[in-house]
Amino acid sequence: MSKKGPPKHQNGYAWNPNANRKKNETEVGGKLRPYSEITGVCSRCKDQIEWKRKYGKYKPLVEPSKCQQCSKRTVRQAYHSLCSACAKENNVCAKCSCRVDRIIGRDCSEVEAEQKMLEEAIKNSRERDRRSLLRAMNKGKSHSLLKTSTTEESKVGELFPSASLEHYAELTRVGDEYSDEDEGEVRN
């Protein structure tokens, strides 16, 4: 005989791990220091790590741990057994070491390259655009958990008048060159 229907005693609200404790926003996992992005793992391992974060079981690494393959202290994310280089080279999950077709998350080098590109775009933009971009970035960090994923097309025109950061940086550089020439003509 199998039971049918909902459970006899349904929870009225979801369990909160820090219900009666005051949160310290400066600790890792608080608003001011959020956890790092989960990268280099398969979807199953990503779900496991997210569960640990959600229910207060996540313990971040204090210092880098040893990679199981190359034996160097290069593993910088909690619950990973392989460094990102070894995992990428062998096309395996960095946590469970199983072979996967699709690894979730971006590589550190991709993130650094994007950060450099963004800094260059900020440096080459006007003060007004720079402040609005920084304001939007700070707002995005605080509301990143609430937002759903957006497409690139929806962001065009919201922060930049053009489709990509490279194009925007080039436009601002060209605009600066023309404004310098105009000022020279006015002075003469």
- Specify Rg, calculated over alpha carbons: 23 Å
Q: Which word captures the global form?
A: extended
Helix content: 40-55%
Unreliable stretches covering 5 or more consecutive residues: 144-156
Report the β-strand fraction as a percent range: under 5%
Count of helices?
Answer: 6
Instruction: Give a short account of the largest sheet.
Output: none
Structural class by SSE content: mainly alpha
Mean pLDDT level: 77
Total E-strand runs = 0
Ends distance: 96 Å
Helix and strand sequence: HHHHHH
Notes on the structure:
This protein is mainly alpha-helical. The chain contains 6 helices and no strands. The model is unreliable at 144-156 (pLDDT under 50).
